[in-house]
């Protein structure tokens, strides 16, 4: 592809991404993969260049841009090499005309910036939410040690905070490596590893991962439990939960039972675990405001109405989880969002609904104390952002 054709491809893709954000359609990564699946003439360098330009344009535009062209023009204003490709030749975009609209810059739409500011994030912390994320892996303690992996993977370095974390250069084809295939490592952001440790899982315990998804944190819990005890992984999303079994097999995690829950019937379907768990992990559905580094167009999809719906889901999973915890047991609540409405305020509301419950310290501490929990954020800790709180049931 010529440089101009690559720019036009980015514009076309951004038009699709903007439309998908408005209609709740496919994610940017999926749209990019589909686009190239039907354009075999595009080589790997073309694909990389188009992808980079698409993501640069997404990161640059705080509010939803009016068009793909406006989004790329905003990048071209900062990058003369991109601006030069608007020459109207071949398959390239038409020349830039005076006063063409540009995508508005910024971190996010104005209402979200306001909510982030009210949640205590300064301008630098907000800007870092749309930085590029590193490629972090968790070493599977059931199968090996971090030192052994570091020896076999010369490109890897240790992550600064998580005891089993390693970092690789972005773009490393992890899933094609022998170490990954043998179950010695899992892709997991360092922040996710740190908050997964907040439950302080121990061998022999009975634990529930209530919102297990594809099991990223379930596998971490199984490793911390050294495959001893009972570990129940639940979710209402069949497709996600189905991905756990092959991952568990690869990782050699043998104590996991997975259970698909019917929305609205969760407590009934978990009645055999009522008041039995030593600990419950709730990695709740949330807006993902603190993982924009990985899918920056998510900030174009969030609306106040969706945020309110997510809040109702968080309240619901917290109440379901509380019913599973034995007297004196613990519940760890996690969201990958830095909005107080999804974090500390949810915990405060939980405490007012559940007399006798209290917050408990997380040892060792994670990140920065914030409200009724602790927080990690990309600017301060170099990880994805998380809010995490530990709650103790009355005895
Ligand atoms: C943040 S994701 C979990 C990610 C996962 N823990 C991990 O580490 O990869 C939140 C999950 O909560 C699930 N969820 C939403 N409502 C639920 C409910 N009522 N009961 C159980 N899971 C629910 C969603 O399907 C989603 O998979």
From TrEMBL:
Cross-referenced InterPro entries: MeTrfase_RsmB-F_NOP2_cat, MeTrfase_RsmB-F_NOP2_dom, RCMT, SAM-dependent_MTases_sf
Family stated for the protein in its record: Belongs to the class I-like SAM-binding methyltransferase superfamily. RsmB/NOP family.
Enzyme class (EC, first level): transferase
Coiled coil: none
Domain SAM-dependent MTase RsmB/NOP-type: 116-394
Biological process annotations from GO: RNA methylation
Active site: residue positions: 336 (nucleophile)
One example GO MF annotation: RNA methyltransferase activity
Annotated binding of S-adenosyl-L-methionine, by residue: 235, 283
EC nos: 2.1.1.176
Domain of life per record: Bacteria
Species classification: Bacteria, Pseudomonadati, Pseudomonadota, Alphaproteobacteria, Sphingomonadales
Xref: PROSITE patterns: SAM_MT_RSMB_NOP
Organism: Sphingomonas yabuuchiae
Entry protein name: 16S rRNA (Cytosine967-C5)-methyltransferase
Keywords: Methyltransferase, RNA-binding, S-adenosyl-L-methionine, Transferase
């Amino acid at each position: 592809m010529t440089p101009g054709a690559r720019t036009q491809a980015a514009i076309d893709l951004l038009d699709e991404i903007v439309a998908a954000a408005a209609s709740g359609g496919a994610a940017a990564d999926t749209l990019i993969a589909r686009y190239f699946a039907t354009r075999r003439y595009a080589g790997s360098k073309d694909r990389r260049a188009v992808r980079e330009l698409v993501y640069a344009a997404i990161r640059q535009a705080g509010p939803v841009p009016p068009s793909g062209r406006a989004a790329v023009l905003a990048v071209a204003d900062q990058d003369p090499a991109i601006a030069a490709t608007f020459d109207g030749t071949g398959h390239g975009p038409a020349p830039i005309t005076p006063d063409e609209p540009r995508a508005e810059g910024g971190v996010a739409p104005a209402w979200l910036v306001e909510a982030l500011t009210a949640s205590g994030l300064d301008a630098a912390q907000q800007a870092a939410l749309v930085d590029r994320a590193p490629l972090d892996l968790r070493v599977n303690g059931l199968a090996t040690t971090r030192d052994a992996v570091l020896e076999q993977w010369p490109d890897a370095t240790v992550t600064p905070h998580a005891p089993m974390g390693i970092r690789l250069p972005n773009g490393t084809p992890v899933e094609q490596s022998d170490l990954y295939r043998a179950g010695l490592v899992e892709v997991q952001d360092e922040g996710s590893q740190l908050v997964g440790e907040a439950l302080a899982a121990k061998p022999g315990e009975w634990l529930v991962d209530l919102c297990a998804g594809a099991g990223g944190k379930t596998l971490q819990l199984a490793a911390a439990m050294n495959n001893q005890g009972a570990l129940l992984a639940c979710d209402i999303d069949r497709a996600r939960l189905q991905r756990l079994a092959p991952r568990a097999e690869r990782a050699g995690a043998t104590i996991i039972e997975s259970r698909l829950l019917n929305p609205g019937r969760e407590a009934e379907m978990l009645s055999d675990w009522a008041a039995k768990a030593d600990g419950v992990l709730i990695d709740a559905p949330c807006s993902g405001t603190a993982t924009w580094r990985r899918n920056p167009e998510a900030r174009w999809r969030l609306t106040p109405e969706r945020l309110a719906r997510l809040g109702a889901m968080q309240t619901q999973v917290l109440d379901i989880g509380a019913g599973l915890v034995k007297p004196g047991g613990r519940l760890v609540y996690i969201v990958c969002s830095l909005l107080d409405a999804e974090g500390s305020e949810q915990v405060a509301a939980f405490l007012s609904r559940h007399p006798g419950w209290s917050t408990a310290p997380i040892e060792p501490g994670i990140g920065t104390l914030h409200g009724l929990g602790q927080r990690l954020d990309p600017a301060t800790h170099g990880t994805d952002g998380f809010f995490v709180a530990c709650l103790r049931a009355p005895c």
